[in-house]
Amino acid sequence: MRWLRNVRLPEPEPAGPGGGRRWRLGLDDDGHVAAVDPIPAGSHASGEDWRGDWLSPAGVDLQINGGLGLAFPELVPGDLPRLRELLALLWDDGVEAICPTLVTCAVAPLRQALDVLAVARAEHRPGRCRLLGAHLEGPFLAPERRGAHPLEHLAAPDPAALEERIGGFRGGPDADIALMTLAPELGGADAVIAALRERNVVVSLGHSAADEAQAAQAYASGVAMVTHAFNAMPDMHRRAPGPVAAAALRGDVALGLIADGVHVAPTMAVLLQRLAPDQVVIVSDALAPYGLAEGMHRWDQRPLIVQGGSCRLEDGTLAGVTLPLLEGVVRLARWSGRPGRAIAAATVLPRRVLGERRSLPDLLMGRPLGELLRWQEGPDGLRWQRAA
């Protein structure tokens, strides 16, 4: 048995460079994690000294819209080779699994994209990011909060409209559809939420004009997440707390956060994580130009301007990013001074949204060390590498 000592796991820890519990990990002859034991304070366990570096699973991205020029809602069978390249790129960028996000589009392209994703999911190989069930972002969105979503493809919430789009597809994290974003205050949304929950699809509030009371009712009805908190929804105001405050007050609703410093100011991102440390989940919201050079690209038929990692339509509407998921971890850790918490927000907590209930030590057991991430904190901030 090979042993690693003085390892930190990404969990809430006291502030400061010495904070956080230390662990000792045992690796079997094949390099798989066979033991994860806490080290009592003051003890000196044997093994390779990691000097307080963190060990985590790789990232899980619940909201990513494409990459290498591919927009997930536009997938056709001929895109499979480039989709495989994208999944290899994501693996190299430290991402283990994604919920490919299909923004609002027409019915036929949506169903075709789900078919293509099903083929790619069945082809999974080591060294590629795994495709989880898709995240359908729309079409049941508030028109006034639609952001870059095309108005002509929005629809009123209705079980028949839902069936038209996803009938014949399976729900669940490892099936066709894992997650759906909608505006719960719209008429008919309650019936759609119930239908989605029956299919084992996680429902998220987003592109919504819901006030605090409407959001609280939605969470009580089974809505379990907020899509890109603060963006495309009412802000948190002292007299109108809004959907983010209602979620934080409950304590059991995940708060998706685009941690680029543009969608949400760094101070607000840090305050949100301090307010709800076990709820903030970092998402990339990466678009089709992810992995490509900056400049002029497109969103459906509209020009998309990519500059400094941000994507905007010609009218200035913020549409997404091209930054890797783990760059959000690095930035949030720098802003907050809480690296363990930032790491957990992209590697551990997204799994909780999709139903994972094992503790982190149990989650690591049996995993090859080479599939995990080692995080080190230095003068230039946090950086990561494969653990072996």
CATH class of the largest domain: Alpha Beta
Largest beta-sheet characterization: 9 strands, parallel
Distance between the termini: 16 Å
In the CATH hierarchy, the architecture of the largest domain is Alpha-Beta Barrel
Number of helices: 11
CATH topology name of the largest domain: TIM Barrel
Strand proportion, as a percent range, falls in 25-35%
Give the fraction of residues assigned to helices: 25-40%
Notes on the structure:
There is one protein chain. With 388 residues, this protein is of the alpha/beta class. It folds into two domains: 2-56 and 357-386, Urease, subunit C, domain 1; 59-351, Metal-dependent hydrolases (TIM Barrel, Alpha-Beta Barrel). Helices cover 27% and strands 26% of the residues. The chain contains eleven helices and 22 strands. Strands 6, 9, 10, 11, 12, 13, 14, 15 and 16 form a nine-stranded parallel beta sheet that branches. The chain has a four-stranded mixed beta sheet with strand order 3-2-1-4. It has a four-stranded antiparallel beta sheet with strand order 17-18-19-20, with no helix packed on it. β14, α6 (242-250) and β15 (254-258) form a beta-alpha-beta unit. α5 crosses α6 (242-250) and α8 (325-336) packs antiparallel against α9. It is globular and about 65 Å long. The two termini are 16 Å apart.
Quickly list its features.
about 400 residues, alpha/beta, Urease, subunit C, domain 1, TIM Barrel, 2 domains, 9-stranded parallel β-sheet, 4-stranded mixed β-sheet
